[in-house]
Amino acid sequence: MTLTSKDGFTLDADVRVIIRIRPQHAPFVIARFGSVPNLIEPDNTPVIDSSFRNNAGSKKAIEFIQSRTALQKDAF
After folding, report:
1. What sign for the dihedral angle of Cα 48, 50, 54, 57?
2. Which of the residues 8, 9, 18, 52 has an alpha carbon 20 to 30 A from that of 64?
């Protein structure tokens, strides 16, 4: 994901999404969405993008890089 910091620098951030579907809920999820990628893309991707973009946009590039561990914990 490409982000822009408060001071205008472009930052690249690797983002991974881990989704756990309980076995007893798997048939319902597949019946409703068709596949796991169909579940992730429309709903979660915009939320994740906006969260990281807002964090990057509120910090200078060096602050964003230095606070990366805290951002990872917050995202988790």
Report:
1. positive
2. 18
Place of tokens 């796991």: 36
Residues 6+ apart with CB under 8 A from 6: 56, 57, 58, 59, 60, 61
- pLDDT digits 0-9 by tens, 9-39: 888 877 777 778 899 998 998 898 888 778 7
pTM of the model: 0.52
Write the DSSP assignment of 4-67 as a string of letters.
Answer: E-TTS-EEE----------GGGHHHHHHHHSSHHHHIIIIIHHHHHHHHHHHHHTS-HHHHHHT
Tokens of 7: 């001071």
Compute the chain's Rg from CA coordinates: 16
